[in-house]
């Protein structure tokens, strides 16, 4: 099993770095669109990619947070910032691959976040919540720093629900002692496929009905 | 005393859940007004209701924060989000009761926040500060996520000062070893009545004089 | 050496209080410009002055954060808020001295932040990052609460790069065991002079080239 476990760990780490790269790229692209300077690009790239995990680690009391100890996440985010700064591809080119990579980050982060929180002694519902925070927290910070309403809150294509489903599945597996690399990968894959389908078929979450006088 | 203490604890817990419900409702109503989807409503409800306490717990090093351990706060916030999503009452209906419930939350949170911080070894001034953060932090997060200037900072009816008064009274009682369920309840009641009077008589805090050229 | 060390410590503490005062003043002035009430002025002054250090301390697990234990920082920030509330000088009067004091705060905070993080066991790159966060974090919180895009991200005069240079120099000194009061003071002075020169000669950081269709 040792070989298998190690291969799974490597696969998971590589997957997470893909997710970090995708998240960092989305932050860097927003910074470019807003006319931020090179420093602003780096800050938005790093806080998008690492913010969710840092919040999770602060909440569970794991200090310093993982991304301050294992620097591969930070270097990956900086690499993404550099690529965007120098190359700065058109959104039409990046749109497709970026969305897919972002979906991988979302799916992997919601699972690993839930596992880390659960292994730090949180109950299944709290671990689910933190898995969700890990997956979407960085994007919320990106949008706050970039001066726009967090895109995860507004009725664009479903984004948070796949992460919530993945986190819930993971916490359920952990609770019933059925979590292992294969079931965990299935949970991540489920979230990823759900997100890709939402992008492909333009799925939206319901809004509350609003009377005209309720609009802000 | 055991009976009495237990009754006091129950009363305090019920009061806090009322406050959580009121705070969560204010977050959910803002989300509806801004056109957020069901997920945005849930996020705003939860972060408004639980945000202040989470910040307090992170600052005093109580990890995981209380609302990740005792889930009654989370369920109460989710209930408020569900009520607003399905029923979505007009602000004219909710305005009055909501303001009163919010005042109860404010008064209870500033007292319990101060007590928790003091019992974790902080000095009276720092405990006062954290009591204030507990009471108003959630609303600040709500407004940041909702894309508006934190209402507690702008010259609407006095909101933070009652919380500050309640927290200061509590810290003073603790410092002079005079805090007990009765004096603590008086501090909370004082803050609640102060806030209700500010709403009733439209009290405002002073602003600095501004010359015309100072306006942003 | 004891005398010398103690004199250095006193000089550093006085310098930090100068920086706190300058940062708090910048927060209070923004609050006045935005028409916030007296409470909003106090909140913006305190969170600008203390926010960066609080984030650093939460990340390294030093709870409660230093500014909740040593209250001299808090009182200094409150003093700055009071001065601005009552006196409220014109920006033309405060601009020059304020910019210089702010540069001192920036230079001192990036060095002390890096040292504190390094002494808590973080590696040199992570310590550099936290030194930077200590120096600029308060200003980011100020701008978020004040409803504007963080000024450190946009292409105004170079602000974060001096802090990054100071933090990098400090971490390098610590890594090679060459940090002492004198070399540390040189790192701080370098950052301060760099920032003052950037103000004097209107230096800017580069932006990524943007095609017209990339603008937000």
From TrEMBL, chains A, B, C:
Residues 16-88, 100-173 form the Glycine transporter domain. The keyword Cytoplasm does not apply. It is a multi-pass membrane protein. Keywords: Cell membrane, Membrane, Transmembrane, Transmembrane helix. InterPro entries: Gly_transporter (IPR005115). It is found in: Cell membrane. Pfam families: Gly_transporter (PF03458). The chain crosses the membrane at residues 12-31, 38-55, 67-87, 99-118, 182-201. Belongs to the UPF0126 family. This is Trimeric intracellular cation channel family protein. It comes from Nocardia vinacea. The lineage of its organism: Bacteria, Bacillati, Actinomycetota, Actinomycetes, Mycobacteriales.
């Amino acid at each position: 099993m040792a070989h298998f476990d190690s291969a799974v760990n490597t696969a998971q780490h590589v997957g997470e770095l893909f997710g970090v790269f995708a998240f960092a790229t989305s932050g860097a692209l927003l910074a470019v669109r807003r006319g931020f300077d090179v420093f602003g690009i780096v800050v938005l790239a790093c806080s998008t990619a690492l913010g969710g995990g840092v919040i999770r680690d602060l909440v569970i009391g794991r200090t310093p947070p993982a991304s301050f100890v294992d620097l591969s996440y930070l270097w990956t985010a900086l690499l993404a910032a550099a690529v965007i700064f120098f190359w700065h591809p058109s959104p039409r080119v990046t749109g497709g691959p970026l969305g897919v990579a972002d979906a991988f980050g979302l799916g992997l982060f919601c699972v690993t976040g839930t596992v880390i929180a659960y292994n730090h002694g949180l109950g299944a519902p709290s671990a689910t919540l933190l898995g969700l925070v890990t997956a979407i927290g960085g994007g919320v910070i990106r949008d706050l720093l970039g001066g726009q309403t967090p895109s995860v809150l507004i009725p664009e294509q479903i984004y948070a629900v796949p992460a919530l489903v993945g986190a819930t599945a993971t916490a359920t597996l952990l609770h019933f002692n059925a979590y292992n690399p294969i079931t965990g990968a299935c949970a991540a894959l489920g979230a990823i496929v759900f997100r890709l389908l939402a992008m492909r078929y333009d799925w939206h979450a319901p809004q509350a009905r609003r009377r005209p006088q309720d609009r802000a």
